[in-house]
Task: structure prediction
Amino acid sequence: MERQRELPKVGTAAIIRRGGKYLMQKRKGSHGSGTWSFPGGHLEFGEEPEKSVVREVSEETGLKTTSAKFCGITNDIFEKEGKHYVTLYYLCEVEGEPSIKEPEKCTEMGWFAWNELPTPLFFCIENLLRTGFKPSG
Result:
């Protein structure tokens, strides 16, 4: 009998720029462990996507988001893991200094130039780059 597939999930990701560099974190404990991604997570039932990215930024980094503007979308099928996400990206302005608030989900955090992002990148971020996306400004 064929295994019933789950419906795709929705992820949100924050592209946070400060001084020409972008905040990234090294994933731990879930799919993509050991890869670098933007802060973000899952859209919860009944939640507005913009509110999701604001919540995730606060939970993961302690930063307060002052603005979040939609800037991109990817369709991310993780064949090996049997997962499928649609990821919504937001350019975010924030206040404060980031710190690792969920050490069970993140081992490192840092600021990187767009043309010098750390590797390996999380699959969703690779997909975003394949679209030719570059943040404005």
The mean pLDDT is 94. The chain has one domain: 9-130. The longest helix spans residues 49-61.
